[in-house]
Amino acid sequence: MKFQRPKGTKDLFPEERSIHNKLVQIFQKVTSRYNFNEIETPAFEHFDLLSSKSGPELAEQIFMLKKRGDEEFALRPEYTASTARMFIDIQKEAPKPIKWSYSGRLWRYEAPQKGRLREFYQLGVELFGSKSPLADAEVISVIVDFFKELKVTSKEVKVKVNNRKILQGILTEMVGEKKLDEALRLIDKKKKLTKAQFAADCELLNIKEIIPILEITKLEELDGLNLNELSTEGVEELRKVLDFTDNKFVEFDVSIIRGLGYYTGTIFEAVDANGKLRSLCGGGRYDDMIESFGGEKCPATGMAIGTETLTLYLTELERLPEVDTAPDYFIAAISESVLPAALKIAKKLRKKHSVEIEMMKRSLGKQLNYASAINAKKAIIIGEKDLAEKKVTVRDLESGKEEKVKLDSF
RNA sequence: GUGGCCGUAGUGUAACGGUAACAUGGAAGCCUGUGGAGCUUCAGUCCCGGGUUCAACUCCCGGCGGUCGCCCCA
């Protein structure tokens, strides 16, 4: 019986896992500079927690666990709900703001496609307690610094920022609150439609005045419009976010909507310059969630980076972090009688180095062949003749140069 | 949820309505203390189920999986 990997999952072999670890490590380095402290949440939660902030369509995509008694559990499809739950536990006594980071696996029951799996990995941060645009800017700066640390340039990746309030204000004036979601959904789809189709759909919804507004690329151009209070507030917040972040990487994009989720103000996503891949990360402000989860009203902002698309893009850019899974030493034992001596040397070397020892009883030729196949840097050849003189041979596997080394020098 | 394409040793490929081969990788020998080459040997394959047929890896249907889209994307 041969088993197949479950749909939408991925096995990581040492090289891939090692690259992944490096990405996580770099992320942790960046977040700790901003004093985001790492947390972890359960991989599964009560279904109600995970589904409460989403519509029926998203609830469909939650991985359910088999029902136990009356309790319904599901695998987390994101971190935000869990961290919000966690935050509420300590909300009263904790000094604000609270800044947390995380990295871990998430699950969504969806059809896999490029950059999207059923089990995937996200790196993220959440910031609770500050309503200042500075908080959003700090979250965005983590993204920018992370890309810089990966040697990705502002020509290759952009963080596109918008503020929910701007379009919300404008569209509410045009169509009222009832049709707001529908209008936002259409604008979110704009890139996938032709100009004519989009214009026709706008006509249907009675929002064709929005078309020229969506062409705007500079924040100042919005100032000329006669905006309502909500929109003006959004513009002011956005202006500050842009002021506080790296203007090479971060730019205003009025068409960024980010679904119809829980976002209330600043929203952003990082995209590859060609726009070929799905977004590299996303986030924004969600000032209503804590209260709706039973906490006291509290502003919050955060973001998450998916490693799948990131890895695809870094591969394309040939900018994957370098990793080395090869051992420093391979210990070749010519006969079984030298194994005790071989193990002694291995034990000493392993205090500082990665060491592999022969365990296949192969001929010396085969052993060296293997050592070079796994890219070992040096081989230590242990045989009875040398051992009688308390020596071993150390061979540099790249140059082929050898020297006799005394046993007690290890 | 849905559409297109795809599914043969670990990997990459080939052939064929009569149960499969080549390359590479693996183990081993030539070579009982010196690798990356060569030669030789060994192990290893038709995704699963049903149908058609004397006979199915091959044709048909379904499933599973891969891949790229659509819906959606917290």
The largest pleated sheet is described as: 8 strands, mixed
Name of the CATH homologous superfamily of the largest domain: Bira Bifunctional Protein, Domain 2
Counted by DSSP, the helix tally is: 16
By CATH, the architecture of the largest domain is named 2-Layer Sandwich
Number of β-strand runs: 15
Strand order of the largest sheet: 1-4-5-10-9-8-6-7
Distance between the termini: 48 Å
- Strand content range: 15-25%
Rounded mean pLDDT is: 94
- The CATH class of the largest domain, by name, is Alpha Beta
The domain tally reads: 2
Radius of gyration: 28 Å
Unreliable segments of 5+ consecutive residues = none
Q: Which bin fits the share of residues in helices?
A: 25-40%
Going by helix content, strand content and strand pairing, the class is: alpha/beta
Which geometry do the CA atoms define?
Answer: elongated
In the CATH scheme, what's the topology name of the largest domain? BirA Bifunctional Protein, domain 2
